[in-house]
Amino acid sequence: MFRNQPKVARESLVQGFALVCLLLLGGFAIAGPSGVIAWNESQRLLELREAQLERLSGEREQLRNRVDLLDPDHADRDLAGQLLRSHLNVARPDEMVMLLD
Length: 101
Prior knowledge:
3 helices, about 0% strand
């Protein structure tokens, strides 16, 4: 009867260790860095990044259109005139400049 006791104690120790390992794995699956709780935060960040990507894509298209309009071979006269007036303070003789507060 006493001969089996160390074997039973060793099996109980192994089973207890296995239980602790399973509980740790379960805890990481729920609250770990890639667990269920962090998954909601990851989804929120993904939606935020997709919205930012959409906005930046729109800005990129606007810049691409502006570059196409300012191509030296066939520049858009209206845009070139607008840029000259705004950056160099150039005006034609028949234009009047009005300063507003």
